[in-house]
Design a protein that fits this description.
This protein is an alpha+beta fold. Helices cover 30% and strands 26% of the residues. It has helices at 2-15, 36-56, 71-77, 146-151, 153-160, 205-222, 270-279, 298-301, 321-332, 375-388, 402-411, 422-427, 445-456; strands at 18-20, 32-34, 60-63, 87-90, 97-99, 119-120, 125-128, 138-141, 166-175, 190-200, 230-234, 246-254, 257-268, 285-286, 309-310, 313-320, 333-337, 350-354, 365-369, 394-396, 416-420, 429-434, 440-444. The longest helix is centred in the first third of the chain and has 21 residues, at 36-56. The protein is globular and about 75 Å long. Bound molecules: adenosine-5'-triphosphate. The site of adenosine-5'-triphosphate (ATP) has 16 residues, from strand 10, strand 13, strand 16 and helix 9.
Amino acid sequence: MLDLMSKIISLSKRRGFVFQSSEIYGGFGSCYDFGPLGVEMKNNIKKAWWEEMTKKHEKIVGLDAAILMSPKVWQASGHLTAGFADELVECKKCHHRFRKDFLEKEKCPDCGGELTPPRKFNLMMKTFVGPVEDEAATTYLRAETCQGIYLNFLNVLNSSRLKIPFGIAQIGKAFRNEITPGNFIYRTREFEQMELQWFCHPQGADRFFEYWKETRMKWYLDLGIKKENLRFREVPKEELAHYAIRAVDIEYKFPFGWKEIEGVHNRGDWDLSNHSKHSGQDLKYFDEEGEENKLSSSPFAKARETKKKYFPYIIETSAGADRSFLTFLINAYCEVKGGRTKTTKAVKEEEVVLRLDKKLAPIKVAVLPLVKNKPELVKKAKEVYGLLKPHFVCQYDELGSIGRRYRRGDEIAIILAVTVDFQTLKDNTVTLRDRDTMQQIRIEISELHNIIQKILEGEKFLKFGKLIK
Ligand code: ATP
């Protein structure tokens, strides 16, 4: 199974999804760069998440807060205190971390795995702001994006006239000096989070927790992640982060085991009450006359806000864009034996098809002249490419046999291929090929844009033309 990871890593590099950062200098500590296909796909993931949050749900607004914040934020949040400054060791196998001075043996007490050498460890990445590198100028790259949301709670409230319950969504970079990063882009030191912070009355918190937990699981399922490879994991009390009252992880079955891809947390009033204390600002919510929640859909309808002034509870859904990326890639990877493309000689070769959801595929359409040594075909194909390019992410490809080009497209999840052939020159029709079924239909160039649009929106391929045998 681990072999699958090597294949994913190799495909990522070969086709331009993900590269090792600073590769020409031998690479750099678990940082990665997203290549031409990777950036399209990652943007698509972020877009799918953003649309889910801000379009599908009511009462969720967006935010884009700065990565650098006052260092006081990290005092208030608890990130600079307690266990963070102790000597830690981490199990190389299960990644559980332990205080060195608490260990009896030189082995992981949970799984018996090998331990890293002890280090004074704070996950926060330190940096200096301004010309002098002293304590006064020290701040940190954010270790989680959510703090920027809490700091802007009042700003958003006052500027948007939202009433509780409501949510703030944000996508952005976070940095953690992980002791043992690894498994490609699963655990890195610089990564992106997609977070919703949902502010609600303490009495509604349990209900909203359930709602968001289910809603987030559905998001992965709707984007094609196989059900049998997803599960919830209730985080036991002793493992809870310092801010959490309750936490459930959404886990995916990676080739290296079941691992978290998203955390759903009930953070209670930890954040707002601590920021109130440390900043001296009153971050309580004032509820005018037990304002009734206006949302009609089920878990919301029952929420009546009665208490007048209180710290809202926060339900957080925190997903990693990079981890989702890896999850979608692994989930989509298929090897098909025995000649999907009949026109190639290498019919028995293993062919890779990346069955990414239509929304996530980096390139939607390939435009291919049947052969490249016929100038009329090339000219026509380039015309078709010019027609489609402003509307869809397209690729023009004329190198190699048509079968090989189909395969190259399948490997990077291109959803539709448009082939310009000799018949096109006579009647302005082209063939349209579907990645997953390899079915082909013949359609008019004048209808291409419209039909492609509809297929990408989910309509059935064969609705638009007769199957070419
Ligand atoms: P883990 O136990 O894997 O370290 P965590 O419980 O510390 O994760 P959270 O703080 O809940 O993670 O972060 C929420 C999400 O952010 C995670 O589910 C993951 O998708 C993403 N994330 C966290 N740390 C990393 C990292 N080092 N690299 C990539 N993604 C990360």
